[in-house]
Amino acid sequence: MSEKKPLRVLLICDSYPPVMGGSEIEAQRVGAAMIRRGHEVHVLCAGGPPMPAVRHWVDTMGVPVSILTRRSRGRWKDFNFAWEVAFAIWRRRRRYDVVYFLMQGLHLAAGLPVARVLGKPIVMKIAGSGVIPLMRGSRAGRKELDWMRKWRVPIMVLNEGMIDEALADGFIREQIIWMPNPVDPEEFRPARPGEAEAWRASHGIPENARVVVYVGRLSREKGVPSLIGGFARAACRNTDIFLLLVGDGPIRGQLEALVRERKIDLARVRFTGMVPAADIPAWLRASDIYSLTSPSEGFPCALLEAMAAGLPSVVSAIPANLQLVDDGVHGLTVPFDDESLIAEALLKLVDDPRRRLEMGREARQRAVGKYSTGSVIERYETLFSAMSRGH
User: Fold this and answer.
1) What is the pLDDT of residue 355?
2) If we measure between CA atoms, which residue out of 15, 20, 102 comes closest to residue 301?
């Protein structure tokens, strides 16, 4: 139980687990952690597959969730959700202290003025790099940004590049709050003796393989084609290297075709498809190196989880990754689109077990020291409490 005054938070996000994006996972982790510390959190989200076909439920981590739109699709769903959010903010006005918008959208444009009229403290978290310029390019996004700037709404960002984007859009520095996503270091931990070997044996991963793992959505913006290209070059020079792609997405078929096109031995690449969230820590513990070569990120939750699990990494040299990985300390950084340098970095770690071990230790130390759930939730509590007192 937190010693601070219990808070009642209304957390509003378009999508939520079982949708498994970084923002969705963050919403669930923050909600669950706040509840464990004695606060109340209620999530409002949109519906549709893979969400359950219910109106209200308590999720697997104990967070109460209300699905406001279950049957509408496409643009109509956005309008419907926006209306439902505005109505819910008004209807529930005596049951929350702070309105927390996670991610932008029409629901933000509809909900902001209602919360403002009610005199409720408002906070918004920007989902990723490039979002503010994207919002500025749409009519609803411009209105949202202008209102938040005018009303001095605190906005949470994930990296230094996003701070620069907010400042360039006219926000004052006092409005901008760095708020990373949390990781549970007990759930995402290094393998115990025999764990990795047992998982590999039960899932057909060669015992002597040096496993490079990617966890996430199989989509072009994640840079997976560059990773496969770099792996293809590395595989020509090391027969033990193995690529594990954990997740699914719209370009899986194209990626499988790319593996064949690059003449990679199919026995050395595994597409797992969508896996239960509870299995992801085990896949990480069964691996040797994590790789993320995306051109843009907000805050890479999967990379942080891999670091907590004690894995060194090969990552693209973008602001979101560089705030987690110091080149040569926690992993190696590369240009996101240079297959040759990706291959060289993979081989440096594959061929040097001592270096992998040292970097993995440093990676876990950074993940636990700066981004563990407890330390991040303290930041949320401090922010929400200050906002509540100010109204």
Assistant:
1) 98
2) 20
Only one residue has tokens 């047992």, namely 198
CA distance 158 to 170: 18
The pTM of the full predicted model, rounded to 2 decimals, is: 0.87
| Long-range CB contacts (within 8 A, 24+) of 229-232 | 229/258, 229/262, 229/339, 229/342, 230/293, 230/334, 230/339, 230/340, 230/341, 230/342, 230/343, 230/345, 230/346, 231/264, 231/269, 231/342, 231/343, 231/346, 232/259, 232/262, 232/263, 232/264, 232/339, 232/343
Of 283, 287, 317, which is closest to residue 300 (Cα–Cα)? 317
The Cα 79–Cα 91 span in angstroms is: 18
pLDDT along the chain (391 residues), means of 10: 77 90 88 96 92 91 93 79 96 97 94 97 92 94 96 94 95 96 95 96 94 94 96 96 96 97 95 92 98 93 97 96 97 97 98 97 96 93 90 63
